[in-house]
């Protein structure tokens, strides 16, 4: 979600090749600032591009199959669903749609993230993000694989709808950035839902339910669990419990099978947890030659 | 690749929810050390688990389809292939196989990475990694989705072969860690290829060609481009050119379609690049309210 943007400001050493030792790098003036590892991966690497193309390839194939053979259920969890008890809104005879998040799902906010990279350690600022939404223009890039996948999906008669936490206040600018990136048509009130369009603030469930009154949503794509259900964003859910909720039980089977995840290690609620949250106590190791 | 391990030691603020401002965190004694964002994402988040399940779901479906309908070509690039000119080893009538990397592809090295997390800023040390290979035991976890996917693949009669830069010197320990994680059978010399088993050092092409003499490799999985071809690891390839080689041209269509990428922002050759490598010059933005 846009409003959960966080830059993890890092001092990093350049990634070594097998034979070259890593030289420690120090933070410096913008001209020589180190790019955080998370951004090197997401924006610079062929690995992340491959991962994105792969996700969009899977999304496209899945949606085209649904267009040929209508499902009875959508992939939107009904209001009465719970983490242990999924229940999906039925498809009915409504026209088919796919719902996608925007930021670091359909497009990459290169301009905003560049500005963060040259100001290491700075906290997220909603007003700065608002200036980016309003005036960032085309300093974005479509996620690899997105343009061709969305083109194929639309050609199959499936409507593409964006569900974003960008603000309704900047609807015109937000339509334009999607359309100019080749991802459109994005029309606010039709194929672009923004924060403020329905109750729930930055939670997206109400918007998904509103979309589902008019469409059978056969697939969704996002970079955060909240792009699929607000159930994953309950504040009392611990980091390990949130991971378990997504990776085991009834939701695990959805990944790549109606729910499509784009990898984003740069910001978002995925970047939480202390040692005890991230590393199970029975999976720890200490170098026997320790601090020698 | 194992030997390109790098920890990006970071000072991170806890990822904020929409309404909560980020509190800056300081590095401290191990009991309160901050986990780097990259590790929070890869090891702690439901988002990365979802991404892994999705990749393994796609791998499984693809391999099962190949088992039903044999391809004429494998997905291993032939020796004469070049980045602009792919050429694949023909399938012939050899038995089908899938080839996977091990580290952060089939399993997560939680123990080794925990040790890195509590020693922030430390450079990679091959000897320390060797001690981990030899004695790390079971402080690992299978990648989400891997065990069930490999089981289905084997049940379809397709051989699962691991191609890892772990060392042949520790073959017994490396077999054991895979087998005990539920990913086996891994037998060195049969279904586990290690560094040293063929020429090329940490390059994997020679091992892929050796495997291809006995098998038709219908799919491969890895977390780095070198898990698919050494062509992506040519030292003179710039960061943007390497990204382009994977994301455009003839290789782009392979992702999710024979070549399966697992997202790993914690270490590897994906973590390279300065500002000019990562952020295209025409996609930059500066906050108009700058440093106010």
Describe this structure in words.
The structure is a homodimer of 292-residue chains. Chain A contains nine helices and nine strands. By secondary structure, chain A is of the alpha/beta class. In chain A, strands 7-6-3-8-9 form a five-stranded parallel β-sheet, with helices on both faces. A two-stranded antiparallel ribbon of chain A has the order 1-2. In chain A, helix 1 crosses helix 2 and helix 2 runs parallel beside helix 5. The first copy, chain A, is globular, with a radius of gyration of 20 Å. The termini of chain A are far apart. The relative contact order of chain A is 0.18. Chains A and B meet through helix 1, helix 2, helix 3, helix 4 and helix 8 of A and helix 1, helix 2, helix 3, helix 4 and helix 8 of B.
Descriptive keywords:
homodimer; 292 residues; alpha/beta; two-stranded antiparallel sheet; 9 helices; 9 strands; disordered N terminus
Short description:
The structure is a homodimer of 292-residue chains. Helix content of chain A is 32%, strand content 14%.
Average pLDDT taken over every residue of chain A: 91
Structural class of chain A: alpha/beta
Classify the beta-strand content of chain A into a percent band: 5-15%
Q: Main beta sheet of chain A, described?
A: 5 strands, parallel
Helical proportion of chain A? Answer: 25-40%
Oligomeric category: homodimer
Radius of gyration of CA atoms of chain A, rounded to a whole number: 20 Å
Low-confidence stretches of chain A: 1-29
End-to-end gap of chain A:
44 Å
User: How many β-strand stretches of chain A?
Assistant: 9
User: Which outline of chain A best applies?
Assistant: globular
Spatial strand arrangement across the major sheet of chain A: 7-6-3-8-9
| H/I helix tally of chain A | 9
Q: What is the largest interface, and how many residues per chain?
A: A-B, 120 and 118 residues
Taken in chain order, the helices and strands of chain A follow as HHEEEEHHEHEHEHEHEH
């Amino acid at each position: 979600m846009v409003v959960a943007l966080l830059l993890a400001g890092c001092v990093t050493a350049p990634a070594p090749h097998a034979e070259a030792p890593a030289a420690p790098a120090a933070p410096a003036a913008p001209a020589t600032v180190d790019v955080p590892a998370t951004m090197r991966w997401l924006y610079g690497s062929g690995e992340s591009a491959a991962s994105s193309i792969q996700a969009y390839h899977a999304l496209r194939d899945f949606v085209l199959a649904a267009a040929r053979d209508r499902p009875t259920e959508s992939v939107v969890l009904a209001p009465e669903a719970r983490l242990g008890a999924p229940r999906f809104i039925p498809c009915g005879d409504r026209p088919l749609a796919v719902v996608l998040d925007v930021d670091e799902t359909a497009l990459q906010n290169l301009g905003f993230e560049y500005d963060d990279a040259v100001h290491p350690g700075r906290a997220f600022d909603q007003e700065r993000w608002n200036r980016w939404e309003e005036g960032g223009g085309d300093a974005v890039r479509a996620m690899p694989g997105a343009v061709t996948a969305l083109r194929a999906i639309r050609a199959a008669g499936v409507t593409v709808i964006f569900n974003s936490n960008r603000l309704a206040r900047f609807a015109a600018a937000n339509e334009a950035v999607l359309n100019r990136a080749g991802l459109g048509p994005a029309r606010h009130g039709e194929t672009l839902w923004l924060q403020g369009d329905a109750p729930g603030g930055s939670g997206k469930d109400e918007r998904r339910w509103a979309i589902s009154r008019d469409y059978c949503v056969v697939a969704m794509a996002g970079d955060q669990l909240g792009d699929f259900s607000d159930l994953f964003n309950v504040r009392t859910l611990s980091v390990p419990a949130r991971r378990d909720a997504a990776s085991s039980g009834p939701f695990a089977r959805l990944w790549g099978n109606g729910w499509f995840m784009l990898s984003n290690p740069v910001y978002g609620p995925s970047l939480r947890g202390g040692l005890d949250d991230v590393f199970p106590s029975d999976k720890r190791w200490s170098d026997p030659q320790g601090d020698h």
